[in-house]
Amino acid sequence: MESTSAASRLSPTQERTLDLLRRPSEPVIFDSDQIAAFTSNFSDALDHLVERLDAIGKSLFISKGMLTSVLGCETHFQQKEEFRWNVTTAIGTVAHRAIELLTGWRGAPYPATLVDESIARLSEKPNSLGDFLTSMTDGDRADLINAATDRVVKFTESFPPLQQSFIPVAESSIRWPESGTIVLGGKSDLTLGRAEHGESRKVIIDLKTGGAWPNHMDELRFYALLETLRTGIPPRLIAGFYLDAGRAVPEHVTIETLGAAMRRTLDGIGRAVELLEGRQAVRRPQSSCRWCPLSGECEEGRSWLEEQLAERD
Ligand code: SF4
Question: pTM (2 decimals)?
Fold first, then answer.
């Protein structure tokens, strides 16, 4: 992001965000041979895992959530929970679509106008979210509008106005490879900038409500890895943006960052492959015990939750 002529009219929070995301004076350019070797190493390691899955006739889609889950408690990971749209699960998608509309909207729309338009457009889609939005009760609609508007308001308070020159894209999908036995994919909440003549300029941002968790940065590094595999040019910066606090937590992308993402991703895929091959899942009590559907019958999880309660008292 470059400086804006309107910088003097920004709020202190917006100025702080702009400073954190601003493009440095020195261009960020990765060694192309190093990136080519990196991609080749990753592809070779993935090929071995593909061979093992092909041998048992299985396939995997690797998302940031899947990796966090399999690297956490494997028993919980194996518990197939049917995803259902409700007000809570729809807030992020509705708010991000509203922010996407904001990037192309002329003038200064009210956040609630953007949210209304977001719901209207998402409702038109022939998918499960469209079905939920068209059939939700008036009470759910009111809750959804209020919660999504709150996110959009916080976003506009925290970010400088998204000029077209920032090349903002909301809900940008990435897949790599396009198809196959193992496909890695995801959708970043917001990207700014794009690679130019081999220079890394893209910034990948995940918008968060609530506090920061260690896995947030791991998940952003996964997106940096995906971008590198897809384009051959890493993003220059990844950042979690915490809307409630109006605070960005950025990290410069380096070859070490990408190496860490590669190792974590291969570790997670390797564990998922082992489980599909029949290895016994390992229970690892952790924060997910709080919402795990097995917590009632899981001794390890119950003990862990009791310890947490005791520590809090
Ligand atoms: S309660 Fe905790 S330890 Fe037990 S299966 Fe669920 S997440 Fe794993």
Answer: 0.87
